[in-house]
Amino acid sequence: MxxxxxxxxxxxxxxxxxxxxxxxADSLLVVDDIQFDVREFHVDExxxxxxxxxxxxxxxxxxxxxxxNTFSTQVLDQKKQPHFFSTIQMGNVLVKFEDKQNYLxxxxxxxxxxxxxxxxxxxxxxxxxxxxxxxxxxxxxEGEFLEVxxxxxx
Length: 154
What we know:
16% of the residues lie in helices and 48% in strands. It is built from 1 helix and 12 strands; from the N terminus they run αββββββββββββ. The protein is globular and about 45 Å long.
C-alpha cells in the first residue's frame, strides 16, 4: 500500500509541474519568433513623461534584421487614444520623433535579450497607459508588417 501512495504522489507532482509549465508558456508573447516582455513602465511626473521599458528575445537560429516602423508604433491610454513616442531606443540605436525617421533597424541574435525603451513626452497625469503597439516587418514576407499589442498592467 505504501508503494501505491508513492506512485500517486509522483503522478500528481508530474502532472502538476506540467500544468505550471504549460500556463507560463501560454502567457508568453511570441510573434515571428521574437518574445516580447514588459520590464516596467512609469510616469516621470517631474518631466511629464511616460517611460516604458521592454525587452525582446529572438528565437531564430540566424541573426535577423528587426525593422520597426516607428510611426506606427504607438502607446494607447485608457481611452484607447494613441500617443506618438518622443524617443525609441533599442539596444544602442536611438530614434527621436523629431528626426522623422520611419524605421529603426536592429540586428537580433538568437537568445540575446535586447532592451527597448519608449518615451512619450507631455504625458498627462490623468492618462493611464493601457497598451503599447509595436509594428515591425515580418521575417518571412518583405513589406508585410506585424502589429504586436502589448498590454501595460501593474
